[in-house]
Amino acid sequence: MHRYIVTTGLLIASSILMSGSLRAENAPAGTAWRPGYPEAGLNDAARQFIADFKKDAAGLKADNKKLRVLIIGDSLSDGYFHWSHYFRQALQQAYGDGGIGNINAKSARNPRDNAAGWLFEQGKDFDIEIAGPWRQAWASRDDAWPYLGWNGGLMSSDSPEASMTFKVRAADITVVYSSGTFETWNGAPFENRAGGFTIDLDGKAEKIAPATAGQPLDIGLAKFQTTQGLHTLKLSGINSGWLWLAGLLLENETPGVVVYNIANGGWWPYNYLWRQPGFEKILQAMNPDYIIYFLSKPDSGALDRSLADDGKEPEYRRMEERVKKALPNAKSLHMICWDSRSGENFPKSIEARQRRQAYFDETKAATLNFYDGLDREQMGKLEWFKDNIHLAKAGGEGIGKAVVALFLPAQEK
After folding, report:
1. Which parts of 240-362 are beta strand (E)?
2. What is the pTM of this model?
3. Burial 218-241 (b: 16+ CB within 10 A, else e)
4. Does residue 277 sit in the same domain as residue 243?
5. Does the pLDDT at position 165 exceed 60?
6. CATH number where 369 lies
7. Residue 214 half-sphere exposure toward CB, CA atoms < 13 A
8. 102-142, pLDDT tens digit by residue?
9. Which has more confidence, 207 or 393?
10. Strands 290-294 and 331-336
11. Which residue(s) pair with 204 in the sheet?
């Protein structure tokens, strides 16, 4: 069974620097793509990556298989109208709907405002209801919280009165939560202990025991296999600690493509290495065939934290090595981001791009170059941005549909 992981890590590591003439070239009216892009932004290894994907995807229905893609990135690869959702939608229309992928628990605050809420139909795909006291726990707040979730944070509660009810379309359901204990951000002796709770799937309850004192911080996975359809899963009765809930992994019984998305706003590769016990468990639970990295930094201050201890080796290498150790057979593509902020070509960003590009050249990595391919000024004129950083609907669609066309059968483009 083939699994593809797409790591959308803020790879602003462009082809070192664009020539002045290329940067000044005007994009065609109605698009911010420069002539020939995005296809012109593929190197030979990326063309092979896409050829392998299309070959594997073409036989999914006949072979009754899934093809899994994982995007590892930041806020530029996630969000309401970001390119990755158009990418997922078109792949599933062409090759079959393998399932929803991952749903973030914090979507409970407003399920229809979920990162890709517009892709899903209320009452048919998923809904979330919460009761009792819950708070959003940010994964990037120093070391106050363990990074055990995706897309910016997770939901937490220590109240027996708290509950969260998911109604989801799936056959395979995995609940992702924290286990073990960890100290508070300032090193105080108080320990946050992962609480016990009850998981009820369609009226059948299962108890999850709380962490024992001193138990190492880790990822907890509760897996359920059932029939294809709309199911009700309720988490409740938190006791003897805090439940840190990341969300659900959802797959259909039917063959097709599943696109998972691990993204966290503003993150560098450094953050994916930082205090993340259990990261490999999440990767292996998703079990992708292909990985797409789309990390859009560096920008201000990113260089210092994106280097290894010797100040020379990019931590990007260390992040990728950790992913490869968990998923040795997955194939990888690195997307080199457009300027994530206007005017970011100051010395540290330039140096960080050069370091990353040198790493890609050294490892003969598959790359897709948005930095050379997109005219940022034109993106602004066409209102592809909603806040000068993140994509509006026009930007998500303009980038997502152009990129996914590279992955579709010729008759589907």
Report:
1. 243-251, 256-263, 290-294, 331-336
2. 0.87
3. bbbbbebeeeeeebebbbbbbbeb
4. no
5. yes
6. 3.40.50.1110
7. 0
8. 988 877 666 545 545 667 776 788 888 999 999 876 544 44
9. 207
10. parallel
11. 201
Q: Which amino acid is at 71?
A: I
Structure tokens at 118: 């517009």
Q: Could you tell me the residue range of the domain that residue 128 belongs to?
A: 103-253
Angle (nearest 5°) at CA 281 between 276 and 259: 105
Beta strands in 264-343 (DSSP E): 290-294, 331-336
Asked if 22 and 34 count as a contact pair (C-beta separation under 8 A), the reply is: yes
Count of structural domains, the chain: 2
Burial of 106-139, coded b for 16+ CB within 10 Å and e otherwise, reads bbbeebeebbbbeebeeeebbbbebeeebeebbb
Q: Provide the pairing of β-strand 204-208 with 135-138.
A: unpaired
CA angle 25, 75, 276 (to 5 degrees): 130
Confidence at residue 9, expressed as pLDDT on a 0 to 100 scale: 36
Tens of pLDDT, residue by residue over 353-365, are 777 888 899 999 9
pLDDT of 101 higher than 80? yes
The share of the chain scoring above pLDDT 90, in percent, equals 48
For residues 261 and 344, state if they share a domain: yes
| 236, 253, 270 - which closes a domain | 253
- How many other C-beta atoms can be found within 10 angstroms of the C-beta atom of residue 188? 8
Question: Could you tell me if 339 and 345 are in contact, meaning their C-beta atoms sit under 8 angstroms apart?
Answer: yes
For residue 224, what are the contacts with CB-CB under 8 A and spacing of at least 6?
172, 173, 174, 175, 201, 233
Judged against a pLDDT cut of 60, whether residue 206 lies above it is answered with: yes
CATH number for the domain that contains residue 180: 2.60.120.260
- The answer to whether residues 354 and 16 touch, using CB atoms and an 8 Å cutoff, is yes
Work out the pLDDT band at 413, boundaries 50, 70, 90. Answer: low
Judged on CB neighbours under 10 Å (0-12, 13-18, 19+), 51 is exposed
